[in-house]
């Protein structure tokens, strides 16, 4: 078996798989090393299972808003079974088959850089293999959850995104540490699936602090109505769990402690760069691998090392990682052909990544928030509109609550960012992504007529509010 390839990729998550696909399309040979399951976190412990758990909760919210429909209790066992099916019952043979059909070589084991252009693999079935790369090595090892150094927390063996997404039980009382995306999505999933008492302990002063402030406020209101408690401006001081898997006491700086059956830590992620051999090529461990817009590691001479996805810290999102992977595969292919300055670059990241938070209400945004746009020095005008006032939204359900914001660059009359918060808002996002990325002039956007009666009419209302 040949152990020399044009490209060697470490990590077969969504990003590693896409680099391989793109490089082979360009006529190169490739191998990808994976220590766990082909498909990565996204397929088994992140995007896919979390959305499978949230879908019935979202639908229950929709049904509750339409008079005349009866909401039956959620059959949790059926939801968990569908989640298991969605993650392929942790069988990655389909994904491995796809990689092999590219065609590329799939190597099961732990990969480690071993000097320039060389990857040493501790094979899953024992033994070792050394792969060398003629053109490029790509690190696509993803990220892992951070467990902050709170006394007693690590000893309590809390849930992280892994355990909550693969759970076969819903805890009666759940305490969630964090107020970001994982915390909000998983608190709502567990509560909707039957947790009796769900409490978020949030260090900052609100939820989803990187989004427009109204988004977190709307979500907090929806959480309060559902009985999910959000406690802000607080940090856990220590935890006690005398029995493994038993009850947990969560101590706060003041007031009585919280008693829980499980604790979910959702306090961010760190790049998976430990023990990947970065030191053998002169790079530091435990920090994101810094790359340029072609995904080439800036700290390595000769330009043979690349990093895509969560591990480079640019945008911890599957779709952005896959986009980076396509850029990276095309750049490697072009350079292998002798084009040292290929035109392909990560452009989308610079506009601000599109993202959907799959809660009820859904929160989605692309581009810059007002605060970021102002900090970046743009002359900004902000346009807000109450989505509940749109006929299409009213028809979706009683008491539809939603809010839209457009951030306009007043000098160029284009959109810098758009945020929607409301039930079913996720599908509005791509239109916003096109408008922001293509920098469609507002007086041209005015001619994009939204169909009646859809929630998309909010676009017309935003432009009218702006004065067009
Ligand atoms: C709960 C949760 C929900 C999420 N939901 C969404 C969502 O709805 N939408 C969205 O866009 N993003 C979502 N994300 C983020 C998304 O999961 C990540 O951005 C995405 O998985 C990153 O892909 P990646 O290929 O960089 O890394 P990963 O998916 O982490 O894949 C990396 C792979 O590399 C392997 N690996 C690591 N080290 C080695 C090694 N030394 N040798 C061999 N193999 C190795 C790992 O086993 C893994 O399979 C979510 C994240 C979480 C935690
Ligand atoms: N639907 C989606 O697109 C989706 C879903 C889940 C996750 N993700 C991605 O995964 C990444 C990780 O998500 P996440 O929610 O873990 O991270 P995050 O960065 O979104 O949120 C982390 C939260 O933890 C808090 N925090 C951090 N350190 C803390 C500490 N020591 N003590 C108390 N609180 C602390 C932060 O203030 C914040 O509220 C995100 O960047 C997100 O983009 C995306």
TrEMBL record:
Pfam families for the chain: Pyr_redox_2, Pyr_redox_dim
Residues the entry annotates as binding FAD: 51, 111, 141-143, 310
Domain Pyridine nucleotide-disulphide oxidoreductase dimerisation: 354-459
Cofactor(s) for this UniProt protein: FAD
SS bond partners: 42-47
Cofactor note: Binds 1 FAD per subunit.
Record: residues binding NAD(+): 178-185, 268
Cross-referenced SUPFAM superfamilies: FAD/NAD(P)-binding domain, FAD/NAD-linked reductases, dimerisation (C-terminal) domain
Sorted UniProt keywords: FAD, Flavoprotein, NAD, Nucleotide-binding
Start and end residues of each FAD/NAD(P)-binding domain: 5-320
Protein name: NAD(P)/FAD-dependent oxidoreductase
């Amino acid at each position: 078996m040949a152990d020399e390839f044009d490209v060697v990729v470490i990590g077969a998550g969504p990003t590693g798989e896409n680099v391989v696909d793109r490089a082979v399309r360009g006529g190169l040979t490739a191998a990808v090393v994976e220590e766990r399951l082909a498909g990565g976190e996204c397929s088994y412990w992140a995007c896919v299972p979390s959305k499978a758990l949230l879908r019935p909760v979202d639908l229950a919210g929709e049904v509750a808003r339409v008079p005349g429909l009866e909401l039956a209790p959620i059959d949790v066992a059926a939801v968990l079974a569908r989640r298991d099916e969605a993650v392929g019952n942790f069988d990655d043979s389909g994904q491995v088959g796809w990689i092999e059909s590219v065609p590329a070589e799939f190597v099961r084991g732990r990969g480690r850089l071993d000097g320039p252009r060389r990857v040493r693999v501790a094979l899953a079935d024992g033994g070792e293999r050394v792969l060398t790369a003629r053109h490029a090595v790509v690190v696509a090892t993803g990220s892992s959850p951070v467990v902050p150094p709170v006394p007693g927390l690590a000893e309590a063996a809390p849930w992280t995104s892994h355990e909550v997404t693969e759970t076969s039980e819903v805890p009666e009382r759940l305490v969630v540490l964090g107020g970001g995306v994982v915390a909000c999505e998983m608190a709502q999933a567990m509560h909707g699936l039957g947790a009796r008492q769900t409490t978020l302990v949030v260090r900052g002063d609100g939820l989803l602090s990187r989004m427009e402030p109204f988004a977190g406020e709307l979500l907090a209101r929806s959480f309060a109505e559902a009985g999910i408690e959000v406690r802000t401006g607080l940090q856990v001081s220590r935890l006690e769990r005398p029995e493994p898997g038993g009850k947990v006491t969560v101590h706060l700086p003041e007031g009585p402690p919280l008693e829980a059956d499980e604790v979910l830590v959702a306090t961010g992620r760190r790049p998976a760069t430990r023990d990947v051999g970065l030191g053998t090529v002169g790079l530091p461990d435990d920090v994101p691998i810094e790359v340029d817009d072609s995904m080439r590691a800036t700290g390595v001479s000769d330009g043979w090392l690349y990093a895509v996805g969560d591990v480079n810290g640019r945008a911890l999102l599957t779709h952005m990682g896959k986009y980076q992977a396509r850029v990276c595969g095309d750049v490697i292919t072009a350079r292998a052909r002798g084009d040292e300055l290929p035109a392909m670059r990560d452009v989308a990241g610079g506009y601000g990544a599109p993202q959907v938070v799959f809660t009820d209400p859904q929160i989605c945004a692309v581009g810059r928030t007002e605060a970021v746009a102002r900090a970046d020095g743009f002359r900004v005008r902000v346009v807000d509109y109450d989505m509940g006032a749109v006929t299409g939204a009213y028809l979706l359900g009683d008491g539809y609550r939603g809010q839209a914001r457009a951030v306009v660059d007043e000098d160029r009359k284009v959109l810098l960012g758009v945020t929607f918060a409301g039930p079913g808002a996720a599908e509005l996002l791509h239109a916003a992504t096109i408008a922001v990325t293509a920098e469609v002039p507002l007086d041209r956007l005015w001619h994009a007529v939204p169909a009646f009666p859809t929630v998309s009419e909010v676009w017309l209302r935003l432009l009218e509010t702006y004065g067009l």
